[in-house]
Design a protein that fits this description.
Structural class: mainly alpha
Mean pLDDT: 91
Largest sheet: 2 strands, parallel
Distance between the termini: 54 Å
Strand content: under 5%
Shape: globular
Number of strands: 4
Order of helices and strands: EHEHEHHHEHHH
Strand order of the largest sheet: 1-3
Number of helices: 8
């Protein structure tokens, strides 16, 4: 079986329900940002927990690579092919990642080169996954897995979810990472774009409009990650200037 997209778009009431849910999430994030009048700092984990998180993250990546390989082999055995582009937004992700890395290094340099490097690494790892976690939850049951579909869908996505969650936890490795209202506003903006995208079926980015939605939401995800490393006064100056 041949498909020209990696997932089936939403339609009818499904599209509207998804858009409403995403708008509700947007509203909660914006309202929370308006109510948050101080930065929320997270305590750094100890050495043992830090090493455990890194170890679990590495194992999760290995699990995902194995699962993706098995998934691909099953696709081949069952004659499932895709004619469209597999990852049309990859250049945007790559460029955004480079930009985010060096911006975080600049923002964290006041704490020394080691903290700047660690902050940039964990921030750049987490940045695309801020987009990817809700995105995966939206499309996971609308992909075209090999048979048995439920088993292969879980095989592919469960280790991916574990990677995403551990990556967010590793943000605590940076002593300057904090959650501010600006992070919530940017994240709310990403979910708002998701909601508009949902009204158009949350279709695969093979035509101009879904590409625009994908690109904007991906950039907002990276901006959210960078905002986690902005000092309070600096963030106010940047947002109000």
């Amino acid at each position: 079986m041949t498909h020209n997209a990696q997932w089936n778009p939403y339609g009818g009431s499904g599209s509207i329900i998804l858009a409403v849910v995403l708008l509700l999430i947007t509203g909660v994030l914006i309202a929370s940002g308006l109510r948050l009048d101080h930065r929320i700092e997270v305590k750094r984990p100890g050495m043992f927990i830090s090493l455990a998180l890194v170890g679990i993250w590495i194992l999760s990546v290995i699990m995902f690579l194995v699962a993706a390989t098995m998934y691909g082999l099953a696709d081949k055995d069952q004659g499932i092919r895709f004619t469209g582009p597999m990852n049309p937004i990859a250049p945007v992700t790559f460029i955004s990642g480079i930009f985010a890395f060096f911006v975080i290094v600049y923002l964290a340099q006041r704490r020394g080169p080691w903290i700047a490097l660690v902050s940039a690494i964990v921030g750049t790892i987490a940045a695309p996954l801020i987009f990817e976690l809700p995105f995966d939850l939206i499309v996971m049951w609308r992909t075209f897995p090999p048979d048995p579909g439920v088993a292969y869908t879980l095989l592919f996505f469960l280790p991916l979810f574990l990677i995403e969650i551990i990556s967010f936890m590793m943000l605590t490795f940076s002593p300057i990472m904090n959650l501010s209202r600006y992070s919530l506003f940017l994240l709310g903006g990403m979910f708002f774009i998701f909601a508009v995208w949902a009204l158009f079926g949350f279709a695969f980015p093979s035509s101009p409009l879904p590409v625009v939605f994908n690109v904007i939401s991906k950039i907002l995800a990276f901006a959210t990650a960078v905002s986690l490393f902005l000092p309070g006064k600096k963030s106010e100056q940047l947002l109000l200037s």
